[in-house]
Amino acid sequence: MSVTPELALSLDNRFVRELPELAVPWQAETTPEPRLLVLNEPLATQLGLDVSALRAPGGLGLLTGNEVPEGATPVAQGYAGHQFGGFSPRLGDGRALLLGELTDPSGHCYDLHLKGSGRTPFARGGDGLAAVGPMLREYIVSEAMHALGIPTTRSLAVVATGQSVRRETLLPGAVLARVAASHLRVGSFQYVQTMGDVDLLRRLADHAISRHYPEAATAAHPYLALFEAVQAAQASLVARWMLVGFVHGVMNTDNMTISGESIDYGPCAFMDGFDPGAVFSSIDDAGRYAYANQPVVAEWNLARLAEALLPLLDDDQEQAVALATESLGRFRDQYGAAWSAGMKSKLGFAADHDDSVVLPLVDQLLALLQDTRADYTSFFRSLGAAARGDAGPVHALFEGDQQGLDEWLNRWLALGPDSTAMERTNPAYIPRNHLVEEALAAATDGDLEPLGRLLEAVTAPFDSRPGLERYATGAPEDFGTYRTFCGT
């Protein structure tokens, strides 16, 4: 079926045209009783979409994949991936569909994509559906990440389907509509690698260059330039995760984008108390994707991308490996530079402030925070008050060596931190895990008010506002160990 005329939406099918080998045409399952739970009106407006039309029956049909524009070709995308270190040669969109690409009024191209729209040929035994809670979790976290200035896929809407989904119990089902610069992943290149088709690999790389890094097309070595651009984007992205205390939870290669956007918010969370070993995935028993491991895993994933690209880097295998190894060797410096600049900003210093002075202060502070498990977000936010002469909030958050903290504060204050700049960098509000669970539980039971309040806080994270104090406070002591699930 086509969408109603008032929506006036045109979707391109460029991915399908250029890379049909990676696309399986498919249709979403029929949604018996669609009901809009949340619509991202600012994003819809940015995309040039009519908000009132999206709320109408035809719009809900689009947001669930039941009605699509004429000429659109919904597809499940194929990709491979290393999952917790083990390689799966055929993963793909088991419960998702790419509806097509849309172009916003400023000329930027985005994928319009569904999650929870039903089984596809890649479903691997799953039901292809999604529950309300996990889809709203992705909405909350992705919009919070966007507000924090971190590259991410965006959530356009969550629509309840009117049917139940069986997990441990029966849960209300939902479909998430999201947009992304694209859904190309490291796993997309690995999928082609398993085929041994160099022409297809070249077409995929050309598609990625055209879509994300057009400057690479004119480089002396375009495919090496593509790899280096992806590497730089990922170094910056993971540094930003680390700076806000975000733990992705499942950094498989199929969850690392070529665009440098965060994607697939399943077992993810923000730290409360600072803990380098923080793990929030229920299945990450070994801590592979713990907070402190994220830069190392990113480098490992990029090595897998380099392996997939080797046939394009040079006809001589040894030379191709040498080029890839040399480029990959720069990742740690790129990540370190991004993280150091960000940490300086969190402490109120300019990026060019002397590393030899600031970085030892950073190391000392993180050691203090780790010893006491002080709340990471609240502590850095409270440092802004300390820079203005009020160290009381910092001391209240710190239950350890108060003398050691005072010594650190004195050394830091002597460098003249900029408190105003700090409050533009250190958020007052993040999606606190206990508040996320509260909002999801209420929404699952039909109450959307806690969700709205949480979104109000986290979509303007740097602006402290009266009435939102509980959204700037860590978890209560009885909240316990927090674990999240993939939502499949």
Report on the architecture of this protein.
The strands form four sheets. A five-stranded antiparallel beta sheet has the order 2-8-9-7-6, with helices on both faces. Strands 1-3 form a two-stranded antiparallel ribbon. A hairpin with a 2-residue loop joins strand 4 (81-83) and strand 5. The chain starts with 13 loop residues before the first helix and ends in a 30-residue tail after the last helix. The protein has 488 residues and is of the alpha+beta class. The longest helix has 23 residues, at 222-244. 43% of the residues lie in helices and 12% in strands. The model has no long low-confidence stretch (mean pLDDT 95). Among the domains are: 5-180, no CATH class; 186-329, no CATH class. It has 18 helices and eleven strands.
Q: Strand sequence of the main sheet, in spatial order?
A: 2-8-9-7-6
Mean pLDDT: 95
- The helix fraction, in percent, is 40-55%
- Total helix count? 18
Strand content: 5-15%
Could you give the order of the helices and strands? Answer: HEEHHHEEEEEHEEHHHEEHHHHHHHHHH
What is the number of E strands?
11
Report the sheet with the most strands, covering strand number, pairing sense and barrel closure. 5 strands, antiparallel
Q: Which segments are poorly predicted (pLDDT under 50) over 5 or more consecutive residues?
A: none
How would you sum up the global shape?
A: globular
Whole-angstrom Rg: 23 Å
Helix/sheet category? alpha+beta
Could you give the distance between the termini?
A: 28 Å
